[in-house]
Design brief:
Chain lengths: 240, 443
């Protein structure tokens, strides 16, 4: 249907004065480098395409370990669909991110459409539909950490990562990670480290680049690390 | 002040407490044996009701009453432990899970027994990956020891327990959103009623409780309701694990009997604000509680009823202390940004309200605010309150609204100073010779 393809649509739109104004505005927005509020909102839907179907397991090659792991997860719940989150996480770990192929494989195993999985993946922060890096540094910048200058920690880590050319890492200012007793803190590939100073940033970045554990002894679970007061009654001499 | 008696955190520093062997040596799972072999199902429920324990997750609803709403009968019933602790300032559940996972498992089993559930879930937030690993190991140990699975302790009671990991959405800690998320959907809150006790996960009767509440259950069964009620106040029974963070010298988790004064918690336990600083205000119950100023709040008792009377709430029991060196506008902005990011977008007042609150606070922070913005900001907060399916929007409206009400002058001064700075910079940029003249230059 020629009248529905993008080009024809574009010309009709451009002729209308109001739409033309809007398009000029859009050009400015694109030129300014500002991302649109929701990318792709102005792209016409492809109405010629068949509706999405549930991919068949016979048509999609699913790595056996992925299949086994997802099926095990599905067996744990009264309703197998509950395993969507674990299954997506397993696929993300396997592929590095939720690529089209990863979605197709999970969809085939779980018997849902890839679009359904995409609706889930876009809702949750820890599921990525874009490759963001093999490692992550989540710097907590929420209320308690904000009160101890977490923004400076984040800036220092971003700066150090640029200076030391750390690639393949997703560095984010994250919301509360639930470790305010070691504020300000960060989660490096799931390992909580803190309390941090801006001067710790190069060490974290270097350790990640060289594959070492950053800041040994200052992780939440390191045997000799216990932030002051965490779970302890106050020392006797301070008790009144 | 003498060291307060500990219940939940008593053994917390015992090395290897997360292992079944150590936990059992410290008397673990004896409450379970008692609940399953000495008491019948109704007696367990009765004991929880008699203890009058109130939920530790935020709302403070009596657990016994909630469990009593679950219908009797043979239908599939579920118990869910809400371990999606994501509120800024809260980290008590993390410590309980990480250090003493078997206490939670034991609590879940007894709780499930009380309502006759055969399937239990622990919904833990995705960021707690390490804690979830520990919990999963504990669950596996409990299965091996015969505390979970088929025919537990040979009394014909079956229970399956699954640790379900979230994926980084604060809204999934809201009970109705948690149910949707657990069913494999986006975490959007559902309309209430029906309440989870009637139609929860998979539309079956569901009892949903916080980690700390369920951790108290083995103690209730072990000590007996009478003994359990000896700590705390008349309406707030037992002890509370309080997470103290922000501008204090010793941030951390402290267990205190309900009714301990705020001053004792902040000064004696957490070491008070840094040297030479005073407390400007504090959040008594996590970032969603209305703030109390140091003057009005420090001598109050820390329990559900006193905090509610003071116009705030105990919430999840996380105190965030703000000292007098902290400007409030960036803090309010940070808070609003959090709720904007975490709003699921289902209800308009919350989705739009959080967004516009952030925009207005940004204008106040950058000096572009007009006097109208302050009124509008108050109005937006009022219009969010009580108008959504869940309380996420309220959780922003309450603290931001209370900061505005109590520190309005500081917000106005912040905006005025920022505006003066902007104007000064503008003069400097367009007419440097004027800016150099002391009489006209920036104030």
């Amino acid at each position: 249907m020629a009248d529905r393809d993008g080009q024809a649509n574009g010309s009709v739109r451009a002729e209308h004065p109001l739409v033309a104004d809007r398009l000029v505005g859009l050009d400015h927005q694109i030129a300014s480098g500002k991302p649109s509020v929701a990318a792709g909102w102005d792209l016409p839907a492809d109405l010629d395409k068949d509706p999405a179907v549930i991919p068949q397991l016979a048509d999609v090659r699913v790595p056996p370990e992925l299949l086994a792991e997802i099926e095990y997860r599905m067996s744990l719940y009264p309703d197998p669909r509950s395993a969507v989150l674990p299954a997506l996480k397993i696929a993300q770990r396997h592929h590095g991110y939720l690529s089209t192929l990863a979605m197709l494989q999970v969809a085939a195993v779980m018997k849902v459409t890839p679009a359904y999985l995409s609706s889930i993946a876009s809702f949750y922060d820890m599921l990525n539909e874009e490759p963001l890096g093999r490692h992550y540094i989540y710097v907590c910048t929420s209320v308690s950490c904000h009160l101890s200058n977490a923004k400076r920690i984040y800036d220092a880590i971003v700066e150090a990562a640029e200076k030391l050319d750390l690639g393949d890492t997703d560095i984010r200012a994250f919301e509360c990670l639930g470790a305010c007793d070691m504020q300000p803190m960060a989660s490096v590939d799931g390992r909580y480290v803190g309390p941090l100073k801006p001067s710790d940033a190069p060490e974290i970045v270097l350790a990640l680049r060289e594959g070492r554990v950053p800041l040994p002894g200052r992780g939440l679970d390191d045997p000799d690390h216990m932030p002051a007061g965490a779970g302890d009654p106050p020392p006797q001499d301070e008790a009144k | 002040m003498k060291a307060p008696p500990l219940r939940l955190l008593e053994d917390i520093d015992e090395p290897g407490l997360h292992l079944l062997e150590v936990y059992e040596r410290r008397g673990g799972y004896s409450s379970l044996r008692k609940a399953l072999t000495e008491l019948d199902q109704d007696e367990v429920l009765q004991r929880i009701s008699d203890s009058e324990i109130r939920g530790r997750g935020g709302a403070g609803f009596p657990m016994g009453m909630k469990a009593g709403f679950v219908p009797k009968g043979d239908m599939d019933k579920y118990l869910i432990c809400n371990a999606d602790e994501s509120e800024p300032g809260a980290f008590k559940d993390r410590v309980l899970i990480q250090k003493n996972p078997h206490l939670l498992v034991e609590g879940c089993i007894i709780g499930a027994r009380a309502i006759g559930a055969n399937q239990a879930f622990i919904y833990i937030r995705g960021e707690y990956a390490h804690q979830a690993d520990i919990l999963e190991r504990a669950v596996a140990e409990a299965y091996t020891a015969g505390y979970l699975g088929k025919d537990i302790l040979e009394i014909g009671f079956d229970l399956e327990l699954v640790v379900h990991r979230g994926a980084g959405a604060y809204i999934c800690g809201e009970e109705m959103a948690l149910l949707d998320s657990l069913e494999g959907k986006r975490g959007n809150p559902r309309l209430k009623p029906p309440f989870p006790a009637n139609a929860g996960v998979y539309q079956g009767p569901t009892l949903l409780n916080n980690v700390e509440t369920l951790c108290n259950v083995p103690l209730i069964v072990g000590l007996g309701a009478e003994e359990f009620r000896k700590l705390g106040t008349e309406q707030s029974i037992g002890t509370k694990v309080v997470s103290v963070s922000g501008n204090v010298q010793r941030p951390g988790n402290y267990e205190v009997p309900m009714g301990t004064t705020v001053r004792e918690i902040i000064y004696d336990l957490a070491g008070g604000p840094p040297e030479g600083r005073e407390i400007k205000c504090f959040f008594p119950g996590g970032s969603s509680a209305p703030v109390l100023t140091g003057d009005e709040g420090l001598d109050l008792r820390y329990d559900f009823e006193t905090m509610a009377q003071a116009g705030s709430m105990l919430g999840s029991g996380s105190m965030i202390v703000v000292d007098d060196s902290q400007p409030l506008v960036p803090l309010a902005l940070r808070l609003a940004e959090f709720y904007r990011h975490e709003s699921c977008g289902k209800c308009v007042p919350c989705r739009e309200g959080t967004n516009w609150t952030v925009k207005m606070l940004e204008r106040i922070d950058s000096g572009e605010a007009t006097p109208m913005d302050f009124e509008l900001l108050v109005q937006v907060q009022t219009n969010i309150l009580g108008n959504c399916l869940c309380v996420l929007g309220d959780s922003m409206a309450m603290p931001v609204g209370s900061m505005l009400a109590k520190f309005r002058h500081e917000f106005e001064r912040h905006a005025a100073e920022a505006r003066a700075r902007n104007e000064g910079a503008l003069v400097e940029q367009s007419a440097p010779e004027l800016a150099a003249a002391p009489s006209i230059g920036p104030a």
